[in-house]
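Exercise: predict the fold of this chain.
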Amino acid sequence: QVQLVESGGTLVQPGRSLRLSCATSGFAFRYENLAWFRQAPGKEREFVASVSWNGRMINYAGAVEGRFTASRDNAKSELYLQMNSLTAEDTGIYYCNMGGHWGQGTQVTVSS
């Protein structure tokens, strides 16, 4: 079955960087578009970034444009999210998404 497993979330100070990973299995990774979403405490889940199947089309939410970089490695069936210049507003659970499938999420907390 489809499995999406996020990792890399932790407590980090404002202004620092963090890299999230999403390990996948159970589907033809190289043919699928994937995305990152996040959910802050008390808020709805929101789109962060998407990466096309070949990695050539990447879209970002306005709030992360210029600070976050999404990428993928089709040989490893993994999706990544490099997050720079983190702020408290980036705090939340980050989820990997493929169609109707979601990972369990990884917690990112930005705090001094």
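Check your answer against the key: The chain has a mean pLDDT of 97.
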